[in-house]
Design a protein that fits this description.
The complex is a heterodimer. Chain A is an alpha+beta fold. Chain A contains 21 helices and nine strands. Helices cover 52% and strands 9% of the residues of chain A. The model of chain A has no long low-confidence stretch (mean pLDDT 93). Chain B is mostly helical. In chain B, β3 and β4 form a beta hairpin. The chains are: A alpha+beta, B mainly alpha. The interface between A and B is large, with 41 and 42 residues.
Chain lengths: 443, 185
């Protein structure tokens, strides 16, 4: 007898169950490709266990998304119900649960090899992994799956929930769609984030990322953004505030200890340098960027890049030889400068000013910088108090009101000039920043 | 517009909105910046989409977070039941003093925005900002048609409120056009 429910073992969620339509997505080429896309890029060079893939993360996101969906749709307070009328239609609720699970499964299918974030440099203008994700969800590979379901799923609905309003800019979201997309990609309680923190913590061996996600998921609710507001938001019952604090702290520590570790950042930069040279050489892809057609995208994974890295590292005539060698022989650039709030008082972008001055002094090839996009603390969510009021989290929690976002900005130099560059910076730092500051107002 | 100038503009806006009675939650700064950009011609180049309470920019949200990280803004709890407020941090004046040209260039426009919108609540700001969003993006010139669009985008807004907001925005746009409030590039 054929099975309608399929189980997969998972180190984080123990069992993940799929129905036969979800199994078809799992077996599709776009999803199977995720078996060969590492979740944390070259982080395994620092944390050897971090070799896990987007494949299992996407399954985890699907599992968590439906747990949150079931919790928030089962308990909607009278003051919230009018904000999301869809909740009173059982057919709608069933339909959107299926859309949500499919969106969660597919939310990462557009990722480049090594999940590389430097998409401005590695894709043609106007493209990013979210646009690739949309292309795949709407491709001939996936459309037959959506159409074969009863009722059929609208691919645009899947795109909206998978990408969220920030990335699906030309699509207009209803409040209901916005809430559902927040279940996946939201700043406060997005399950993408919940799963990657738990999973990355597990695989890196960095315990900071763990928190009581069972309690957290159990306490998430749809609430008015503020008392009396017409805007619904994902919030939490007062009893879950400690697990929300733990999530926020986990995120804070994982970003500082793992994701924005300077050595991880410089390996990312070396990898980007290699990829740019390799793509420009055009022997495999011919376009100077990663492909943006379905077949081309599906052909390229970490495996092809790793093979090219090996070849380039062994042959000094190959494009990207220097970067490949640095990665494979662990001869990465060293930290010269790290941003701090005191320098910001002198210049609004001190890392950029110092990188520019260092490149002028030591040459472009000897200097690299990395300024990843700042991640907000995401403490701005509503809390349902025990006496049924809605209060902002920041006024309910000393932890959340104290934590601030952290700006990360590093300048790195070639290890061959590290000592010289350090002395140069000690002597010139103030002058560099003040000179750059005098140019900030510009013309 | 350079990053430092943009942050200086936001600090000025936050200060002036406070002075005019705003409690400067994220929505107030989002809408204030939207009015500066779309009504008064600021070259801040934020990309606004219809999201929470009308026009909303994720790029601006990132800038506000960076300003917190850099000690220029503090996020503080306010009255019970309401969201937190952005307050200019103690060290921000030192930063702002480095941008005298920006301060001069934006002073009148920011004063105008704070005067017109500083005492408005979130619902008023949502109506007015969405009315401006429609005015800037719609080919429709008829005021009643634009008010209908506002109702279709925001069904919780009544037809009479939508019409009043659309007329208010037309009036303000004409005030700006007749004066020298438009920000010089």
């Amino acid at each position: 007898m054929s099975k309608y429910i399929h189980e997969i073992r998972d180190p984080i969620h123990v069992f993940i169950r799929l129905d036969s339509f979800e199994r078809k997505v799992l077996d599709s080429r776009p999803f199977q490709r995720l078996r060969d896309i590492t979740q944390l890029a070259l982080t395994y060079l620092l944390y050897p266990g971090a070799t896990h893939k987007r494949f299992e993360h996407s399954l985890g996101v699907m599992e968590l998304a439906s747990r949150v969906f079931d919790t928030v749709t089962a308990d909607v307070a009278p003051d919230t119900r009018p904000l999301i009328p869809e909740i009173d239609n059982p057919d709608e609720v069933r339909y959107w649960r299926r859309v949500l699970r499919m969106a969660a499964l597919c939310h990462d299918v557009g990722h480049l090899p090594f999940s590389h974030a430097a998409e401005d440099e590695l894709l043609p203008a106007g493209w990013n992994h979210e646009r690739l994700t949309r292309m795949l969800i709407e491709s001939d590979l996936m459309l037959p799956i959506w159409k074969s379901m009863r009722p059929p799923l609208d691919p645009e609905h899947i795109v909206k929930l998978a990408l969220g309003a920030r990335k699906a800019k030309n699509l207009r979201f209803t409040k209901w769609e916005r809430i559902l997309s927040e279940i996946i990609v939201g700043d406060a309680f997005g399950v993408d984030r919940i799963d990657y923190l738990l999973r990355d913590s597990h695989h890196t061996g960095v315990g900071y990322g763990k928190f009581d996600h069972y309690r957290l998921v159990d306490e998430i609710r749809i609430l008015p953004s503020e008392q009396g507001s017409t805007e619904p938001a994902l919030g939490i019952k007062e009893g879950g505030i400690y697990s929300a604090e733990a999530l926020t702290l986990a995120r804070y520590f994982m970003f500082s200890q793992v994701y924005y570790h300077p050595i991880r950042l410089i390996y990312d930069r070396h990898l980007m340098d290699f990829l740019k040279s390799w793509l420009a050489e055009g022997t495999l892809l011919g376009s100077g960027t990663f492909p943006i057609d379905v077949d081309g995208h599906l052909r390229i994974t970490d495996n092809e890049v790793k093979a090219a890295l090996r070849v380039a590292a062994d042959d000094k005539h190959k494009a990207g030889h220097d970067s490949a060698k640095r990665i494979l022989e662990h001869k990465h650039f060293r930290v010269l400068y790290e941003r701090n709030p005191q320098d910001v008082k002198v210049h609004s972008d001190p890392g950029e000013a110092i990188a520019r001055a260092a490149a002028a002094e030591f040459g472009d090839a000897a200097v690299r910088s990395s300024k990843p996009r700042l991640k907000n603390v995401a403490a701005d969510f509503p809390v349902r108090t025990r006496d049924d009021r809605v209060e902002p989290a920041i006024s309910m929690s000393g932890v959340l009101s104290t934590l601030k976002p952290t700006s990360i900005d590093y300048v790195f130099v070639d290890p061959d000039i590290e000592g010289r560059a350090t002395r140069w910076l000690q002597e010139n730092r103030r002058n560099i920043l003040e000179t750059a500051a005098s140019e900030e107002e510009g013309s | 517009m350079k990053r430092g100038q943009r942050l200086a503009m936001l600090l000025m806006l936050d200060k002036e909105m406070w002075r005019r009675g705003s409690w400067c939650g994220e929505t107030h700064l989002q809408k204030g910046t939207f009015f500066l950009q779309e009504l008064l011609g600021s070259d801040s180049e934020y990309e606004f989409i219809l999201y929470k309470y009308g026009p909303f920019s994720f790029g601006l949200r990132d800038d506000l977070a960076e300003m917190q990280a850099d000690g220029l803004l503090d996020l503080v709890a306010r009255h019970p039941g309401y969201g937190p407020s952005y307050v200019v941090a103690a060290d921000a004046d030192e930063f702002l003093n480095r941008f005298p040209k920006t301060v001069e260039r934006f002073a009148h426009a920011i004063q105008f925005v704070a005067e017109q919108f500083g005492d408005k609540g979130v619902s008023d700001l949502e109506r007015l900002a969405t009315a401006l969003f429609i005015r800037r993006r719609s080919k429709e010139t008829d005021v009643e048609d634009r008010a209908s669009q506002l109702v279709s985008l925001k069904p919780h807004i009544s037809e009479s409120d939508a019409l009043a907001a659309t007329k208010d925005i037309d009036r303000l746009a004409s005030v700006v056009e007749r004066s020298d409030l438009t920000i010089k590039q």
